[in-house]
Amino acid sequence: MGRVLAVIIWIVTLLSVLLFLVGKWWLPEAISNHAPALDRQFMITIIVVGISFTAAQIGLGWMVWKYRDTGKAGDRAVYSHGSNKLEMLWTVITAFIFIVLGVMGQSVWASLRLNDAPPGSYTVEVVAQQFQWNFHYAGADGKFGKTDPSLIDDGTLNFIGLDSSDTASADDSVTAALAIPVNRPVELRLRSKDVIHNFWVPQLRFKQDLVPGMEIKVHFTANRVGKYELACAELCGQLHFKMKSYMLVLPEDELTALQALPQEQFQARMGELLAKYPLPPK
Amino acid sequence: MSETHEGVHRHPAPTGFIRKYIFSIDHKVIGIQYIMLALAAVIVGMLMSLLMRLNLSWPGTSWPILETLFPTGAPGGVMNPEFYLSLVTMHGTIMVFFVLTTAPQGGFGNYFLPIQIGAEDMAFPYLNMLSFWVTLVGFIVILLAIVVEGNATVGEWFAALGPSFAGGSGTVGPIGGWTGYAPLSALGKIAGPGQGAGMNLWVISIAIFCVGSLLGALNFITTLLNMRTKGMTLMRMPLTCWAWFTTAVLALLSFPVLLGGGILLLLDRIAGTSFFIPGGLYVSGLLSGSNPNFPLHTGGSPILWQHLFWFFGHPEVYIAILPGMGATSHILATFARKPVFGYRAMVFAIFAIGLLGFFVWGHHMFISGLSPYSAIAFSVLTLSIGVPSAVKTFNWIGTLWGGRIRFTTAMLFAIGFVSLFVAGGITGLILGQTSLDLPMHDTYIVTAHFHLVMGVASIFGMFAATYFWFPKMFGRYMNESIGRIHFWITFIGVYAIFVPMHVMGLQGMPRRYSQFTEYEFLASLHPLVLFVSISAIVTIAVQFLFYFNVFWSMFKGQKAGDNPWEATTLEWNTSSPPPHDNFAGVLPVVHHGPYEFAVPGAPRDFVMQTDVDVEVPSGNGHNGKH
C-alpha cells in the first residue's frame, strides 16, 4: 500500500507540474510596460513554488515508500522527538526565501500604485454600472465636463449624469468602449454608479475595483496597438458574466483624430475602429 | 493550572430519549450532532457544486429535473444566470460555515477535547447544548433562504414585510458570493434578483451562526484551561487539543466582528441606515432617495464591509484548517508508530499561524481601493505566514521519517492532507504578492488555491478523523476496503478538479461567471472545464460510499476494542464508546507526553499517557535525541 501511495503521489505531482509546463494555458501575451517585470516576478515565484511543491511531494512519497511497516515482530520505529537544529534551519531558510519573495513582489506594485500618473497622461473617466461600461472622454479641450448623479438618466442615455450646462462638457463623448493611446501613460478615473465592479484586461496584467462612492485613480502604459477584451471581475449581480467591453489601443494620431470628433461621429468612428482591429490570436 | 475539578461537573446520565439524544448536555452527543449537521450540510453544498459544474461545461443543455424543481430558476431545464449565482453563494456559505466550521471544531473538538484532557464534560454543558441548537437554527434559516427565493408564493408573503423582503427570484438563495460584498448585498430588491428576502435570511443566518460559534469558543477555552486532569500539563496535551484551543481563540476574536458587521448590513437593508451604502447611487434606473423603493442613502463605505468581513474571514480559514492539522499530526504519529517530530515547534507553529492570521486580512483587498501602502504591509505579513505552515509540513514529513507506517484508511487520509495542504498552500506565495495579485485576483487560481487548502485539505483532515475515531465513537470500525476505495478516488479526484483550475486562472478566467461563452480569451479553456466537471462528478459520486460506510458501520461494522489502533492518548483509556462521564467515575492520571511511540526498552511499542512503571527517556521529550 505504501508503495502504491508513493507512486500515486509522484504521478499526481508530475502531471500537475506538466500541466503548467506544456504552456498551452498560460498568461496571455502582455501589452503593458509594467508587464515584463511582473511576468519576471511571476516566473521567479512559480519556479520557487514548483520546486517547493515537487520537493515536498517527492519527500512525502519517499517517506511513505521507505518507512512502511513490514510487520516484523519487535521491529520498532526510530525513537526521535525531533531536532532543534533542523527546526531552526528550515525556519530560517523558508523565512528568508518567503520574505525575500514578498519584498521583491512589491516593486511592480510600487511603480504603479505609490505614485500619481505621470504628467501628460491620457485621462479617461470610467463609470461602471450594472452590466455596462461607460467611458467618458474629455474631447478636444482636454477638460471633463461636470457630472452629477442627480442628472443621470439611463432613459435619455445620459449614463454618467453629464452636466450639459457646463461648457467643458460640450465636446465630451461617452461611449461603451475604451480607446487609449499606445506608448503613452494612461490614467483611468474609476467610479461606479451602483455596486462594485472590476476593470480587468488580462493582457494588461491589470485589475482594479470600481467602488461606488469613491473615485480611484490608476495608471499604466499600453505598448501594443490592438483590440482587447475587457471583463468585469467583481460579482456585480445577475448578468455579471456579460459585463463585457473592449479596450482599443490606438496609434496616437488615430486617437487624436477620434478625440476631435463630436459625440455622434465619435460613436460611429469608434464602431469602425472596433471592427478594424482584430482580437489577439488565440 | 493543572489541579483537577473532580465531581464539579458530574451530572447523572439521562434516561429519556429526548434528554439523551436530542436536548443532550453530553459533549459526546453534541459532538455527534454537530457532525450530523455537517454531514447534512455538506450534501447540500456538494449537490450545488454539481449543478454549477453541469452549467459550466454543458451551457444551454436542458436538465428536465431542474425544471421540475425550479420552474422559474431553470426554465426549460436550463439554469439562468441568477440561479447559477445563487448556487455559488449558497455553496460557499453552507460549506464554509456549516461544514468547515462545524465538523472540525463543534464536532470532533466537542467529542474529543474533554476526553483527551481527561475531563468528564465541557465546562458549561448547557452552554454547549445551546451553541449546537443556535447553530442548527442558523442552518434552518439558511435553508429557508432557498425556499423564499425559490418559491414564488412564499416570496410574496415576505414581500408584505417591505421592499427589501420580496423573494421569489426563482433562485436557491441570495446572490452575493459567500463574502456578500456591499453595496450589492445592502441595497435590497432594487439591485436585482436574489437581493430580497433571501439576502435578509442569509445575513440573519450568519449572525445566528456567529452567536453559536462564540458560545462554543468560550466553552472550549474554559474547558481546556481549567479542566485538565492530574498530570495533563499544557505541553503534554495532544496537538489536537492545541489546535482546537487556538481555533477557539480565533473564533472568539473574529466572530464578534462578523456579527457586528452582519447586524450593520441588516440595518442598511431594512432600517434605512447607510453603513455600507455611499450617497448618489443610481441603481436600476432610480436615484437613491427619488423613490420609496430606493430610500435615500448617504455617507456609507463599501470597503468598511470588506474590512469587517475579512477581519473575520481570514482567521476563518484557519478556524477551518487548524483542527485538521491537529488531527493529521495525531494520526500520523499513531500510525507511523513514532513521536511527533518537533512537538514544541508544532505548538509554536499553531500559535504563529493563529496570531499572524489576524494581520493578513488585507490581502483579500489589494485591488479593492485599499491604501497601496497598507497593501504592502499585508503582503509581506502574508508571505511570512508561509513560514509556520512550512514548519508544520517539514515536521509531518519528519514524523514519517524512520517510522513503521501502518496504512489504515485514516492514515491514508492524513498523508493525503499533507499532500493537499502543500499543493493548496504553496500558491499563497503567488497570490500573497501585491503585484502578482493584479492579474490573479478574482480568477480561478484563487478558487483553486482556497478550495485545495481550506476546503479539500480540511475535509481530508476530517475524513482521517472520522476513520480514526469512529471505533471510539461507535465501538465499531468503519469498513476499511470501502474506505480505501473512497480514499484513492477522492485523492486523485480532487487533484484532477483543482489543479486545472490554476491554469484557467493564469489564462484569466474570472470567478463567479455563470458562462464562459462570452469571451474569446477563454475559448481555449473549454476542454479543461469539461475535464474538471467530469472529475467532479466522479469524485462527488464516490462520497456516497463514505456516507454508506458511516451509517452501515454504525450498526454492522466489525466490533472494536478500547484501543484498536494501539494509540497513546486518553481517549483510548476508556471504553468504546465512552460512558456518560467519559471515564466511569475515575479520572485518569497522566504521566507521559502524548506521543510516546517506539520508546526503547518499553514493553510495547507505545506508552499510553497513563502508563505507570515505564521509563520514558526524556520526560516530555524535546531533547532532539535521535
Task: Walk me through this protein's architecture.
Chain A is an alpha+beta fold. Chain A has six helices and ten strands. Chain A is 37% helix and 21% strand. Chain B folds into two domains: 25-331, Up-down Bundle (Cytochrome C Oxidase, Chain A); 359-559, Cytochrome C Oxidase, Chain A, CATH 1.20.210.10. Chain B is built from 19 helices and four strands. In chain B, a hairpin with an 8-residue loop joins strand 3 (596-597) and strand 4. The chains are: A alpha+beta (282), B mainly alpha (626). Chains A and B meet through helix 1, helix 2, helix 3, helix 4 and strand 7 of A and helix 4, strand 1, helix 10, helix 11 and helix 12 of B.
Instruction: Look at the structure and name the CATH superfamily of the largest domain in chain A.
Output: Cupredoxins -  blue copper proteins
Query: Tell me about the biggest sheet of chain B?
Result: 2 strands, antiparallel
How many structural domains are formed by the residues of chain A?
2
Helix content of chain B: 55-70%
The chain-level structural class of chain A is alpha+beta
Query: Which architecture of the largest domain in chain B per CATH?
Result: Up-down Bundle
Total beta-strand segments of chain B: 4
**How many individual β-strands of chain A?**
10
- Characterize the overall form of chain B: globular
Strand order of the largest sheet of chain A: 3-2-1-5-8
The secondary-structure class of chain B comes to mainly alpha
How would you characterize the largest beta sheet of chain A?
A: 5 strands, mixed
The total number of structural domains of chain B is 2
Which residues of chain A form runs of ≥5 with pLDDT under 50?
none
Strand proportion of chain A? 15-25%
Strand order of the largest sheet of chain B: 1-2
- The percentage helix of chain A is 25-40%
Ends of chain A: how far apart? 44 Å
Q: Quickly name the level 1 CATH class of the largest domain in chain B.
A: Mainly Alpha
Task: Give the integer mean of the pLDDT values of chain B.
Answer: 94
Specify the overall morphology of chain A.
Answer: elongated
